[in-house]
C-alpha cells in the first residue's frame, strides 16, 4: 500500500508509540482490503470507553486504561500510553444509561469505572455524544467528506442522506483513525463504489415513519450490501423517516448506501445514481410486498398483553419526543406496562427545557439516554412482550433477549403502553 511521507513518519514513531501502533493496524487492514492507499479523514465516530465487566476486569488485571485502550482499541498487545486524537471524533452509544444504572442492572462499581473511562475519552479530545445518531447532535459531515464511522444505522445515514463517505468501521479501525486521521481508501470512499446497482420502483405511497421502516427492511433483505436506487418517491421524507429506513435496511441486509431519486444528494436523476449504467435488476415495492414485510417483522408476536414499550431506536429526535409527549398528554401508562424512550442526552436536555420530559414522566414513562435495550440487554423486570416503532429493534431484540415483539406506529405503541395491550395483531 502506498504511503505518503507523513504516513511513513507516523508509522515510524514520530508521533509516539500509540500512533505507530495505529498506523500498523491501518496498514494491515488496508492490505487485507487490497486498498492502494489511505485517505485523510477529519471525522470519526467510534467507541472508546470501557464499561463492561469484562473490560473492567481486564483493566484491573493488566494495568488500567492504557492496557484496555491498547488491546481493544488498537489491537496492540504492547501497552502504549493513551494519546490525544488528531481527527474530530464522536463517541457512540454506551452499554447502559449512566444516569439510571439500576434500570440497566449495573452496579456502582461499573458506574465508577465508566466515569473514569469517560474522563479518559474526554482527555483524548473525544466528543462525548454517546449516541447512535451523532448527526442529530452536532456531527454533520458535508457531501464528499471522508469519514470513519462505526454503527450501521449511522453509516447508512452518513452515506445516503448526507452524501459523506464512510465504510462501516469497527472499534479498532475507528480508534486508529482517530489518532492518525487516516483510513483505508476503498469501498464507499471511491466514486465507483457508490454507484447504484439495483433498482426499486415504488408502487404505493410511502409517507409515515412506519412505512419508511417497512420499505427499508424489504429492500435490505433483497439488496444485502449492494447499492439500491429507489424511484417513485412522492412526499419528501424527513430526518426520522430516513433514519428509520436506513436502520431497517442495515438490519435485514448490509446496506451502507442507498439513493432516492430526486431526494438524496447523489441522485438528482436515476442516470446520475447509476452512473449511466443499466441496473442489474429492478423490483417493485407495493401493497403485497408491504403486507408480507409487516407480517414477517411481527412473526415473533403472539401474546397481546404488552409488558414493555420501547421507543428510540435509532435514538429519538426532538420531533419524535414532542410527538410522544403529545400522544401521552393527559394519559397514564398502564400499571402492568413500562414505557422507555431513548435519545441522546443533548436532546433530552432540550426535552427537559420544553416540558416534554415532564409530560412523559407524569404519564408514567421515562426518557433514557446514552444506550438502548439492545446495547444494554436491559428491559423492565419480567418483560415477555415488547412493542416498538422501530423495525431495527423488532429485528434484533427477540434474538438478543428472547422476548416477543410487536412492531407498529408510534401512536399504536403509545396506545399499547396506556392500555397494556397490542390491538393491531
Keywords:
single chain; 425 residues; alpha/beta; Aconitase, domain 3; 3 domains; five-stranded parallel sheet; four-stranded parallel sheet; 18 helices; 14 strands; 43% helix; 13% strand; globular
SSE topology:
Blueprint: H1 5-11, H2 17-32, E1 38-40, E2 43-46, H3 53-62, H4 65-73, E3 88-91, H5 101-104, H6 108-124, E4 148-149, H7 152-160, H8 171-180, E5 182-184, E6 198-202, H9 209-223, E7 228-231, H10 239-252, E8 258-260, H11 270-274, E9 281-285, H12 287-297, E10 308-311, H13 318-328, E11 338-343, H14 345-354, H15 356-363, E12 366-369, H16 373-376, E13 385-388, H17 391-401, E14 404-407, H18 410-419
Parallel strand pairs: 2-3, 2-4, 6-7, 6-9, 7-8, 10-11, 10-13, 11-12, 13-14
Antiparallel strand pairs: 1-5
Helix pairs in contact: 2-8, 3-4, 7-10, 9-10, 9-12, 10-17, 13-15, 13-18
Q: Can you walk through the features of this model?
A:
With 425 residues, the protein is of the alpha/beta class. It folds into 3 domains: 5-189, Aconitase, domain 3, CATH 3.30.499; 193-296, no CATH class; 298-419, 2-Layer Sandwich (Aconitase, domain 3), CATH 3.30.499.10. 43% of the residues lie in helices and 13% in strands. It contains 18 helices and 14 strands. Strands 12-11-10-13-14 form a 5-stranded parallel β-sheet, with helices on both faces. The protein has a 4-stranded parallel β-sheet with strand order 8-7-6-9. β13 (385-388), α17 and β14 form a beta-alpha-beta unit. α9 runs parallel beside α10 (239-252). It is globular and about 65 Å long. The termini are far apart.
Amino acid at each position: 500500500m502506498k504511503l505518503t511521507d507523513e504516513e511513513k513518519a507516523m508509522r515510524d514513531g514520530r508521533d509516539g508509540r500509540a500512533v505507530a501502533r495505529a498506523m500498523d493496524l491501518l496498514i494491515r487492514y488496508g492490505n487485507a482490503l487490497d486498498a492502494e492507499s489511505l485517505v485523510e479523514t477529519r471525522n470519526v465516530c467510534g467507541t472508546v470507553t470501557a464499561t463492561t465487566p469484562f473490560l473492567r476486569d481486564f483493566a484491573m488485571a493488566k494495568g488500567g486504561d492504557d492496557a484496555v485502550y491498547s488491546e481493544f482499541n488498537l489491537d496492540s498487545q504492547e501497552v502504549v500510553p493513551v494519546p490525544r486524537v488528531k481527527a474530530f471524533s464522536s463517541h457512540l452509544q454506551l452499554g447502559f444509561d449512566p444516569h439510571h444504572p439500576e434500570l440497566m442492572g449495573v452496579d456502582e462499581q461499573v458506574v465508577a469505572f465508566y466515569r473514569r473511562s469517560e474522563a479518559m475519552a474526554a482527555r483524548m479530545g473525544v466528543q462525548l455524544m454517546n449516541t447512535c445518531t451523532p448527526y442529530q447532535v452536532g456531527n454533520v459531515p458535508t457531501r464528499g467528506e471522508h469519514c470513519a464511522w462505526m454503527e450501521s444505522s449511522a453509516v447508512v445515514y452518513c452515506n445516503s442522506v448526507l452524501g459523506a463517505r464512510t465504510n462501516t468501521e469497527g472499534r479498532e479501525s475507528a480508534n486508529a483513525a482517530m489518532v492518525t486521521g487516516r483510513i483505508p481508501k476503498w469501498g464507499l470512499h471511491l466514486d465507483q463504489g457508490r454507484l447504484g446497482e439495483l433498482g426499486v420502483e415504488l408502487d404505493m405511497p410511502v409517507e409515515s415513519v412506519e412505512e419508511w421502516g417497512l420499505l427499508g427492511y424489504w429492500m435490505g433483505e433483497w439488496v444485502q450490501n449492494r447499492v439500491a436506487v429507489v424511484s417513485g418517491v412522492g412526499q419528501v421524507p424527513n430526518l426520522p423517516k430516513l433514519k428509520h429506513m436506513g436502520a431497517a435496511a442495515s438490519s435485514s441486509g448490509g446496506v451502507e448506501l442507498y439513493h432516492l431519486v430526486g431526494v438524496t444528494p447523489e441522485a438528482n436523476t436515476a442516470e446520475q445514481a447509476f452512473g449511466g449504467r443499466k441496473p442489474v435488476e429492478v423490483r417493485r415495492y407495493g401493497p403485497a410486498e408491504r403486507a408480507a414485510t409487516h407480517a414477517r417483522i411481527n412473526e415473533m408476536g403472539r401474546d397481546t398483553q404488552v409488558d414493555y414499550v420501547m421507543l428510540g431506536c435509532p435514538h429519538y429526535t426532538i420531533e419524535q419526543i414532542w410527538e410522544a409527549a403529545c400522544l401521552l398528554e393527559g394519559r397514564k401508562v398502564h400499571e402492568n406496562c413500562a414505557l422507555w424512550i431513548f435519545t441522546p442526552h443533548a436532546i433530552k436536555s432540550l426535552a427537559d427545557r420544553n416540558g416534554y420530559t415532564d409530560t412523559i414522566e407524569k404519564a408514567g414513562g421515562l426518557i433514557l439516554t446514552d444506550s438502548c435495550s439492545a446495547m444494554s440487554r436491559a428491559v423492565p423486570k419480567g418483560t415477555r412482550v415488547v412493542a416498538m416503532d422501530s423495525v431495527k429493534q423488532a429485528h434484533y431484540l427477540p434474538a438478543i433477549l428472547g422476548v416477543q415483539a410487536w412492531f407498529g406506529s408510534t401512536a399504536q405503541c403509545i396506545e399499547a403502553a396506556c392500555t397494556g395491550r397490542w390491538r393491531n395483531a
